[in-house]
Write a structure and sequence with these properties.
242 residues
């Protein structure tokens, strides 16, 4: 007599585990579709649960689920710029951008809908969540520069301008079919940071001091060294301006 096939024991999920499961399903859907194109039935099907169960955890419906999923994505994005405060600054920024662009790549449609706005799911809370990511990223960069909490207005403006440029470049990258390759885009964005930092240092003593300190830790084969070798011949042709 053949023994009856054993069925894996069903394990009831805890409240936190179920909520995490539903958010994961929602994030996966929002990553590839605009919020208005995702229904609660879609989320329930993706999670393998019933629609009433989704409502039990998110009684506010899709809007509440979207805001919770957005908050979860925001937490992940904030971690992208978290790096140990050791080694050359450009190496740290490169690693942070690798994580950021990997997130953009994985959540392409959702990332575009999130940052471009215009979604019917957009509210003052979702806007505040997105702005919180930008501010957190800027604070992380200022921490890497060693001036968190003490940066002057020009330096803060420079860093926030760069964060905005990173966002814009990411959206254009998606629109261009993810070309150039992510590694090239990362290097280009690091070059932009160095250029902005240097230009700001020309008129801001605080930025000038920390730029000198940052460049002192760079290596000839690192991003700053490579950029210097590429830029110096171009600048040399402008010697008549001196």
């Amino acid at each position: 007599m053949t023994p009856a096939a054993t069925t894996p024991a069903y394990r009831r999920l805890s409240v936190e585990e179920r909520r995490t499961q539903l958010l994961g399903a929602a994030l996966s859907l929002f990553a590839h579709r605009a919020p208005e194109d995702v229904s609660l039935d879609d989320v329930a099907e993706a999670a393998g649960v019933s629609r009433p169960l989704v409502y039990r955890y998110f009684p506010g419906g899709k809007q509440q689920l979207y805001e919770a999923a957005l908050g979860s994505a925001a937490d992940e994005l904030k971690l992208c710029f978290a790096e140990p405060q050791t080694g050359p600054l450009t190496r740290r920024l490169s690693r942070a951008l690798d994580r950021y662009l990997a997130f953009v790549d994985e959540h392409d449609a959702g990332f575009s809908a999130l940052l471009q706005g215009g979604s019917v799911a957009e509210t003052s809370r979702t806007t505040a969540t997105v702005d919180g990511v930008r501010r957190a990223a800027a604070e992380q960069v200022l921490t890497h520069l060693g001036v968190a909490g003490t940066a002057g207005p020009r330096l803060r403006m420079m860093v926030r301008t760069w964060i905005t440029a990173v966002e814009a470049a990411s959206l254009i990258w998606l629109d261009e079919g993810k070309q150039p390759p992510a590694g090239e885009l990362r290097d280009w964005l690091v070059d932009h940071f160095i250029a902005l930092l240097t230009a700001t240092a020309a008129t801001d003593p605080q930025t000038a001091a920390l730029t000198r300190a940052a460049l002192a830790t760079e290596t000839a084969d690192g991003p700053a060294g490579v950029l210097a070798r590429r830029v110096i011949p171009v600048i040399a042709e402008a010697a008549h301006l001196l």
